[in-house]
Design brief:
Elements: H1 2-12, E1 23-32, E2 42-48, E3 53-59, E4 62-69, E5 74-82, E6 88-90, E7 94-96, H2 99-103, E8 106-112
Parallel strand pairs: 1-8
Antiparallel strand pairs: 1-4, 2-3, 2-5, 5-6, 5-7
Length: about 120
């Protein structure tokens, strides 16, 4: 009960409570069709370097989003799939997990998918 009270006070006063996934990677890019028109509903999935999917988030065709990751420099890549496209696109591998890498968002570029 004491722990719950302490956590409540800490959260209400804005105290920082570290968690296991204490790193963040910021990603931006766009998913468009062959004519350059952005998709409306897409899913962006973060993978580790071995291809294991770690997290997925909804993303519009033009996106800027973040994923919580381990606070250790590692290599990742993303895949993008969109409603209305049978294809899935894959980004190039990129490093993430350090403060220096967080300060500049990873520019994934343009995913071009068929409609």
């Amino acid at each position: 009960m004491r722990l719950l009270a302490w956590l409540s006070v800490a959260l209400l006063t804005g105290c920082y409570i570290p968690i296991a996934a204490d790193g963040v990677v910021r990603l931006q890019g766009e998913a468009v069709d062959q004519t350059g028109r952005p998709f409306d509903q897409c899913a962006l999935t973060l993978h580790d370097k071995n291809g294991k999917p770690l997290q997925t988030t909804a993303a519009p065709g033009i996106f800027s989003t973040s994923f919580a990751i381990e606070p250790t420099r590692r290599t990742y890549f993303t895949t993008m799939s969109c409603v209305g496209s049978p294809a899935e696109a894959r980004s190039a591998p990129f490093p993430a997990g350090t403060v220096e890498l967080y300060e500049k968002p990873v520019e994934l570029g343009r995913f071009i998918l068929e409609r």
